[in-house]
């Protein structure tokens, strides 16, 4: 099984006429945030594969439009089960992908550094994660595992993150990994401008991968 993962910027290798040839054996696409919706649309229409995504802290035009449509004073992206451009919003959801059998848990947003859209404190993030627990326990009971892939925008605190206020990860994510042991955590948000910076790190049961630009995952499950 192959999963094409994208985050943070349009990759010239993905956003090209060669996409079909280069990624023809991909089974699924995952978007880890900060990408424009039309990029997802391009990938979905080119590869004709399902794409699950979370929103980051940038490129939120589409997110804003959803917020205005909802006419709510404060907009909660989790309340939207959004299908647009053929892409499926995974934030705040526990998804069992029928075709691959993978259990994917999505959680978008970044740490609150200037009170902008889709930024959260760690306490807020704990609450969001707590809401997923019943479904995760159900999965453990029925499928023998809580989840396979934790798809986020932000990294966990101290793992693949940075020290500046904008790029600090969530402590709550570390707790979540400790407790629910996904095989993989895929995130973006941390831009990698040098090729030799490692993008993978093993943390207990979880391989944490920064999928900045693009990354092809062949999960061993
Ligand atoms: Fe980004
Ligand atoms: Fe970001």
Description:
There is one protein chain. This protein is an alpha/beta fold and 221 residues long. It has a single domain (56-210), classed as Metallo-dependent phosphatases (Purple Acid Phosphatase, chain A, domain 2, 4-Layer Sandwich), CATH 3.60.21.10. It is 25% helix and 24% strand. It has six helices and 14 strands. A six-stranded mixed sheet has the order 4-5-3-2-1-14. The longest helix is centred in the N-terminal third of the chain and has 11 residues, at 37-47. Mean pLDDT is 91; it is low at 71-81. The structure holds fe (ii) ion (2 copies). One fe (ii) ion is lined by residues 8, 34, 56, 58, 188-189. GO terms for molecular function: hydrolase activity. This is Icc-related predicted phosphoesterase.
Short description:
With 221 residues, this protein is an alpha/beta fold. It has one domain: 4-Layer Sandwich (Purple Acid Phosphatase, chain A, domain 2), CATH 3.60.21.10.
Distance between the termini: 10 Å
Estimated share of beta-strand residues: 15-25%
Q: What is the averaged pLDDT score?
A: 91
Bound molecules: fe (ii) ion
CATH topology: Purple Acid Phosphatase, chain A, domain 2
The order of strands across the largest sheet is 4-5-3-2-1-14
CATH architectural type: 4-Layer Sandwich
Tell me how many strands there are.
14
Helix content class: 10-25%
Structural domain tally: 1
**Low-pLDDT ranges:** 71-81
Q: Structural class, from helix and strand content? A: alpha/beta
Principal-axes shape call = globular
InterPro entries: Calcineurin-like_PHP, Metallo-depent_PP-like
Protein name: Icc-related predicted phosphoesterase
GO molecular function, one term: hydrolase activity
């Amino acid at each position: 099984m192959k999963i094409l993962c994208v985050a943070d910027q349009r990759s010239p290798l993905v956003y090209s006429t060669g996409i079909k040839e280069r990624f023809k054996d991909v089974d699924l696409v995952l978007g880890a945030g900060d990408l424009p919706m039309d990029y997802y649309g391009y990938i979905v229409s080119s590869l004709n594969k399902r794409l699950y995504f979370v929103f980051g802290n940038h490129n939120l035009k589409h997110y804003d439009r959803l917020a205005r449509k909802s006419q709510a004073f404060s907009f909660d992206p989790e309340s939207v089960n959004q299908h647009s451009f053929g892409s499926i919003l995974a934030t705040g959801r526990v998804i069992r992908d029928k075709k691959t059998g993978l259990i994917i848990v999505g959680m978008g947003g970044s740490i609150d550094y200037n009170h902008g859209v889709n930024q959260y404190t760690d306490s807020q993030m704990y609450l969001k994660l707590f809401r997923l627990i019943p479904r995760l326990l159900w999965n453990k009971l029925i499928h023998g595992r809580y989840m396979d892939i934790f798809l986020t925008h932000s990294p966990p605190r101290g793992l693949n993150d940075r020290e500046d206020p904008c790029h600090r990860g969530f402590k709550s994510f570390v707790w979540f990994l400790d407790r629910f042991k996904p095989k993989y955590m895929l995130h973006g948000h941390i831009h990698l401008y040098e090729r030799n910076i490692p993008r993978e790190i093993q943390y207990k049961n979880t391989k944490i991968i920064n999928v900045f630009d693009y990354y092809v995952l062949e999960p061993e499950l």
